[in-house]
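Protein fold
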Amino acid sequence: MSFNILLVDWYKNNKRDLPWRNTSHPYPIWISEIILQQTRVQQGLPYYERFMEKFPTVFDIAYADEQEVLNLWQGLGYYSRARNLHKGTRQVAFDLKGKFPDNYADWLKIKGVGSYTAAAIASFAFKEAVPVVDGNVFRVLSRVFDIDLNIASNKAKGYFFDFSKELIDKKQPDLYNQAIMEFGALQCVPKNPDCSNCILQNNCISFSKNIVHERPVKIKQKRIKKRFFHYFVVKQNDSVFLQQRTKKDIWQNMYEFPLIEENSDDLSEESMKKLNIKPTDIQLIKRNNKHILSHQEIYTAFWSINFEKAQKLIKNASKIAVSETKNYPMPKPIYTFMNELISK
């Protein structure tokens, strides 16, 4: 049997029962694809369910405030996904009067929708024969066909897309795309794949050469930027002071305690002088382990300081009742610390 027939047959017998697979409506498919970027299915599923309950239609999310969307997204990371999703739904709801694009090219015009997401929606919802190409697809094709291109390169991305266009089942592109992604997620996994029980074993060139562990090829130099965030917890009665991150940076529009960013895990004398703070005015509450983002490592420290001493620190902050902080979207390190603070 051919490669794509084997894949689709395997998928029909092994696929996971996921809610977005039980519909051909583009909206829930779109929501699921954005949530599942950089996120495991097990982690993303409860977020999908909460989103669909809170925003059952594209108009519901389009009319919502960005803060509502970010609050629901809290804990998933990569918050630009949520912001762009919100902007994209507004495009569909307001500019397109609720009419969803019905093809790959038009989906690419929607904010936050890249080639992978556009291909997924176009094929799953409208059966357009355009291939999805993600990490799972890179891995399966690299191994089965022994493709030694560096998948981190732009050349490889173009090659795999063109190659996938030749492989895709034109009659059932939705099933083929679902099948190859599911196969990569469940069977042809990154480490220690179960090749002895693989339906593609006889087709797999890498298996025959005993080089499965060498595919796919990925060579990427990644510069990791280290940042040190010193947060100041200022309490007044049953309230705390939080400020919004308005600059174009990580966690944009989310809420945090007043912050000083330093070049190390120590507070500089210069920073304290600017804020009229003495070392005796502050007390370390805790240091968190590093928080790893795709291109940055964030090291956090939380300091307590009396309200009277913190006037310059809270200049741009708002006083918020501790019981109300759950309504404000926060980066994960802040959210985790806040929960610890509330539980004490």
Remarks:
- The domain at 3-131+159-185 is CATH 1.10.340.30 (Endonuclease III; domain 1).
